[in-house]
Batch of 3 targets.
Target 1
Amino acid sequence: MLANIEHSAPVRGLGPVLEKLLRPAVGFRHPREVLKDPLLDLSQKRAILSSWASDASAVEDHPTLRWLLGTEAPVPIDEVLDALWRLDGQAAS
């Protein structure tokens, strides 16, 4: 089993804006979507991607997958790290 199904369930009673503040990854399906979000600045993108890459988001018994609270499904850690690398490239330009 990859993870508890409730992991990505919305918090009941929160409006979309409050939910986005408390769980900034809500609505993102892939790290690339974080990079493309025009409403986030570089530090916000870095915070989301760093949380996604952290061991706290690791899927039990699947160390190469990360499932950030608020996202729909797990993604490979390599894809999260690639997004962080691309973000570093954006910051350098």
Target 2
Amino acid sequence: MEGGSGEEIAQFLDPLGVCEVRYVGHPQPLTIPRYIKGVKKVVIKGALIPPWVDALIKEQKETGFLSNEPVDVKGAKVTPYDLTLKLWGSIPEGRDNGPEASGLKVIVKGERAGNMVTYTADIVGRMAPGTGLPAAIAALMLDAGAVTEKGVVAPEGCIDPEKFLAELLKRGARIHQTETIQSMLHI
């Protein structure tokens, strides 16, 4: 799917609430079905908060400002992406008063004992710990010998999810989980 397309509304935990999400370029739609038996479809959508950031990036993509193809500007070759990155650095600190949080929602749909089951896990928190902390836990697990796979392997192919989540929870992560069961019985 094209990154930035497929907009839809998603409900996250507070302080995020309702957010517009769209497809993002992550590898999990390709890697997860390789490692988790029975998984047929993986969709990754996200949003940057505050919403103006997401809108600005989408506009920059649509207008060519994220291109890596150099263009001529007064006789000099300039890569639009490099210019855009430089200009992002000039956005004033504290421009937004929105929530300083990011969210992750995992929705798994399937069938169990003749019923349709939807399992949802939500995590909301700061982006830096949500990115750096999992990487640090994986590195510690690798150092402790808990990762035995060799070569280039996606995390879902080499890290025990129960051990990983236990370590994440030990370090203060909060995960809200729900399970909805719908009968498939038709009368």
Target 3
Amino acid sequence: MIDYQTYCQIRQLYTEKKLGFRQIARELKVDLKTVRKWARRESFQKAPLPKRQSKLDSFKGEIVRLLERHDYSARQIFQQIKESGYGGRYTIVKDFVRRVRPKPKPAFLTLHFEPGECAQVDWGYAGAVPVGSTRRRLSFFLMVLAYSRKMYLEFTLAETLEHFLSCHQHAFEYFGGVVQQVWVDNCKVAVLSRTTDSIVFNPRYLDCSNHYGFQIRACGVKKPHEKGRVENGVGYVKKNFLHGLDLSDYKIINPAARSWLDTVANLRVHGQTQKVPQELFAQEKLKPIHPLAYESAIIDTIRVNSQFRIKVDGNSYSVPCHHASGKLTLKKFTDRLLIYDGLNLVAEHVRSYDRNQDYELPDHVQPLLLERKKARDQKLFLRFLGLSTRAEEYYRQLQQRRLNPKHHVQKIVALSELYGIEAVARAIEDAFTYQAFSCEYIANIVQQRLVPPKEPGALHLTRQQDLLELELPPPDLSIYD
């Protein structure tokens, strides 16, 4: 163990002078391993003091056995080990007894429920699962009927309010009815706040309870025993269904869970009732489900960015381009997203739980592309009119004679970039002379003017006598009369 001064020297040579470990070891005459150990440490730590031998060490096992046999006081134990040869003080014995004495477990009343009276719900954590190019937290919702212990299980990729309400709906559909009360803990999707005198429930959860006709009961803070049936159910799911399960594909987890419920969980002999939950379920007195399913969507006001996108769960979704930089209303379901402008539905997307993905519908960007195309066509036409004073008249002739005048305009403008504006303007003038109206005619005229005309050469006759054997008819002088 080195002292603080040596540590400071090692750090100075290592950080300021940039010496290597071997150089520092030779400089300070310190072992190389010691230099390696302390050079990278940013603070100096003294070596821990050796643990002192206590006079009570040899009696600790006997003290634990005495406490397991009977709830002796520290004074009684002190007297007994003193007779066995203990020579220390009473305070050491008292401190040790306080640490190792088994703490009494609180007593709880066993709650009894009538058929159809209560269901208990809770969330459970199941690790992470791959979704697309990312990984998401995997949670599961569990509802247990307090009388029969029949359970409903559903896995989700979030524990948000829309998932919480949707799972309630699916659970009631699975059971074929609704209980009188639903017991929950103090999660924010159910309880917003609570004091000793009052509980403020989430208004959407209250609305759901009024829709289906059940009462909400929130358990006490840090009192999981009040909903022990679902707490035990969460542990059972982890130890039985999830133990050794390959969580590589989220799409197959819920079908597998439903099969497990119907073939294992609800057909086992329950450890407390010693009866099969599915058999006891026949005695449950559930209320009929409301004929209309409760809309579990969460409604938010969102702002659209300049690229006419909204952000949900780390992904981008398109809306019609004319809503860019505006405000819209978003309805978030567990499986889809509905976007409204007032009462008008403007976009609908499948909700994705991947990350950093962009989802664009072709109809949303089409008007913007058309506007850009019109702007490009207008700019092109203005360039064409600037080629010649007769360009507008030439365009009218193209409209009358050609099926696609814009195509010819585009080609003629391209010719002006290739051969120059003056050459194309002159070609347009000549085209009126020849009544030639197309981009091909303009290109031909321009190219013909670029080719210099060939000068005529001397006439060569193969036979010289041809020049002397010419026969000319006599002239007709009558025209002068």
